[in-house]
Amino acid sequence: MTEMWTTMGSTLASFMFMWAIIRQYCPYEVTRFLDMYTHNIMGYFYPYITISFHEFLGDRLKRSDAYAAVEAYLSANTSKSAKRLKAEMGKDSCNLVLTMDEYERVTDEYKGVKVWWVCSKVMSPTRSMSYYQEQEKRFYKLNFHKKYRGIVTGSYLEHVMKEGKEIRLRNRQRKLYTNSPGYKWPSYKQTMWSHIVFEHPATFETMAMESEKKREIIEDLVTFSKSKEFYARIGKAWKRGYLLYGPPGTGKSTMIAAMANLLAYDVYDLELTAVKDNTELRKLLIETTTKSIIVIEDIDCSLDLTGQRKKKGDKFSDDENDKSNSEVSLRKEVKEEGSSGSKVTLSGLLNFIDGIWSACGGERLIVFTTNYVEKLDPALIRRGRMDKHVELSYCTFEGFKVLANNCFKIETHPMFDTIKRLLSEIKITPADVAENLMPKSPMDDADKCLSNFIEALETTKDEDLLSLRQSSLIKEDENVKHGSHIKENGELHEDNRIMKVTKQ
């Protein structure tokens, strides 16, 4: 046995020596030919197939989406079985992500098929003339038996990509975007949007709104977010328009933040006065991502949307209402050096909302806010563009109880009856209610804040009565003056008639 192992070791050593000599001194074409046919011969006996997912491809300027999806999928599905993990805080992630360490091997199972994932890396040689060492090339290898080729390449990889993308969206750090004037874009900037981290704390639970109306909006939003197949079946772009209108201070901006937090969407705050023309508006739309809310606040102040429709008689078609006479340019001047007036038109805005380009991206909400809905053009807010109209009005007693619970963690109080009576008699916005309930010093408790709020309501009531009385007196005085003027004109007319008769 010893002699046999000695002979085998000597033979292997001789073979390895000869193979090293052949690879070193044989031409490259010959060694390539030998490698190719050796690989082909081994393929007849090796029953496993390998698929590689490289982190960077080509010029290495952009990370592979497939690699990122595999990384997210494995971090969520195999981190419990892997023995060596590495923790990272991704650039666009709000959570700590655990991924497989290099050369770690894990097993995954799908429909009874076992596959093996391996995380590997290759270090490129350092170029002598370069100041920087080339980065390592990382990749994932998927190994599986060749008899499962159809399942793996057909449905398993699609499953990995879909679930990986959903995991990345859930773990991403949500952002608040805004656009800048076109002349401020530097040449190296790759996007028209600048952003900050979106960390607004508003939720539907903390909003001062009737519970029935709140539930209706939540159900509408959740249904929309789960209706991808429905929108595809009816042939409609996966988007929905919301029109939020009401007096200032009624919670329109807070509603947008609550919608974003409910659906985990990014927010794009579009400033129309900074957009040069319709082409630039279209480019901004293209650069928005899926799962986002595009917001145009105070739409009645951003564009001149009143008085630009020229009716052909009393009747005109819906298409004419949408397209004809809509080329009205925005004339607001941007008071920045080097800027010029915006040429965004109503037609361009209508196409931005529901034109052909609006279908790009998918799963998007478009939200308009306004204080004066009657000033908006009917074509801009019709169903199909602004699908749901939400009126945010003055604070009710139910809304007040939400704000009181937010501030003091109370659901009932002896002063609530008085507050309920006063709220039914006067109009006050949720913003004013929240300001009056907010403690002004560390010594302020619920009793003191509620007492101060009742005083503020009574003061507001007295001011409203005084204002109403003054307006009534002014109107009465105008009526008296108008009657005296009529009487004087009548007497003057009678005197003139008598003088004419006397002369005759």
Tell me about this structure.
This protein has 3 domains: 26-173, no CATH class; 177-391, P-loop containing nucleotide triphosphate hydrolases (Rossmann fold, 3-Layer(aba) Sandwich); 409-499, no CATH class. It is elongated. With 504 residues, the protein is an alpha/beta fold. It has helices spanning 2-25, 28-45, 65-77, 149-171, 211-225, 228-234, 252-263, 278-286, 299-302, 318-323, 346-354, 378-381, 397-408, 416-425, 430-437, 446-503, and strands spanning 48-54, 85-88, 97-100, 105-110, 113-122, 137-145, 175-179, 193-197, 239-245, 266-269, 292-296, 364-370, 388-391. The strands form 3 sheets. A 7-stranded mixed sheet has the order 8-7-10-11-12-9-13. α3 crosses α4 (149-171) and α13 (397-408) runs parallel beside α15. The longest helix has 58 residues, at 446-503. The chain is built from 16 helices and 13 strands. Helix content is 46%, strand content 15%. Mean pLDDT is 80; it is low at 126-132 and 310-340.
Termini distance?
159 Å
Summed over residues and divided by their number, the pLDDT gives a mean of: 80
Quote the beta fraction. Answer: 15-25%
- List how many beta strands DSSP finds: 13
Largest sheet: 7 strands, mixed
CATH architecture of the largest domain: 3-Layer(aba) Sandwich
CATH class of the largest domain: Alpha Beta
How would you name the CATH homologous superfamily of the largest domain?
Answer: P-loop containing nucleotide triphosphate hydrolases
User: From the alpha-carbon coordinates, what is the Rg to the nearest angstrom?
Assistant: 36 Å
Q: Categorize the overall geometry.
A: elongated
Query: What's the tally of helices?
Result: 16
Show unreliable segments. Answer: 126-132, 310-340
- H and E order: HHEHEEEEEHEEHHEHEHEHHHEHEHHHH
Helix content: 40-55%
Total tally of structural domains? 3
The largest sheet has its strands arranged as 8-7-10-11-12-9-13
At the fold tier of CATH, the topology name of the largest domain is Rossmann fold
By secondary-structure content and strand pairing, the structural class works out as: alpha/beta
InterPro entries: AAA+_ATPase, AAA_N_dom, At3g28540-like_C, ATPase_AAA_core, ATPase_AAA_CS, Mitochondrial_chaperone_BCS1, P-loop_NTPase
Family: Belongs to the AAA ATPase family. BCS1 subfamily.
Protein name: AAA+ ATPase domain-containing protein
Keywords: ATP-binding, Hydrolase, Magnesium, Nucleotide-binding
